[in-house]
Amino acid sequence: MFENIRSARQITFLVLLLFASGLSFTAKSQTTLPMDHVNAMLNPKSLGVKANGAPKFAKGIVAGRYMEDGQCAEVSFSKWEGFPLKRCKYRQPDSTVPGGRVATVIMLNPEKELLAKWLVASCVIVKGNTGVKSCAVKLALDIINASGSQFPVAGIVLEDMDGNNIQDAFAFRDGVTVKLQGGTNNNLALDPNTVVLSTASQSGFARIQSTSRQTYKNYKGSNAQDVTGLKWLDVVRVLYQDAWKRGHDGSLPETVEKYRNDLLVAKCYVLMGIQPPG
What we know:
alpha+beta, 2 domains, seven-stranded antiparallel beta sheet, globular
């Protein structure tokens, strides 16, 4: 009998703990977004300064957007209708190609203000009101290193992965590096009818913050969508589009929930070394 009572108490405690966690998450989501932290993230010096006092990253949290420096124009793409996509033809230095290597990519990059709000909202969800600024800085630096906050919808991303002044070419779909039928070809990468064979890696790192399948699953727990195979692309696309639409919805109050980006939140838990409640 005593064992039954003890088990009942343990179950009750677990239910109360889960209920309290849910209330805590709801409270955080409905919290007004702290604009002091957002404004701090809009200051380039928030990411560090050089010895002469100049910011380490002149462009601040949007540092590293080299693909935007090319010739860009508005464009549409399958399953991304209604979003302000940009198709950019850009050039990167390459010791094997006179004048540099050229590629074209279609992107949906967040404006600086939206990115700052995504960063702060992620940290409030993960950290509450403690250490939000340092958390946001750490997440921003991680994004700069991972992608320069560039979200490739389709096309080719050039990166000098080995630091040898030779560009490696990667085909993208829905923010994830993929393998295409026919190979890594610019025309194929920009054609929505090209067959996508698989993600380029098992982890399937998703931009803008390199969230893996497993990181997302750890965050969402039993509420996680099926991310096997190419279904991961659908999940990434829906999550990114949802975060984008809420962030640009002028009818919504300026709360943490409005700027919740689950891909960023999932990665933020990992960076902060905190176990997600899901």
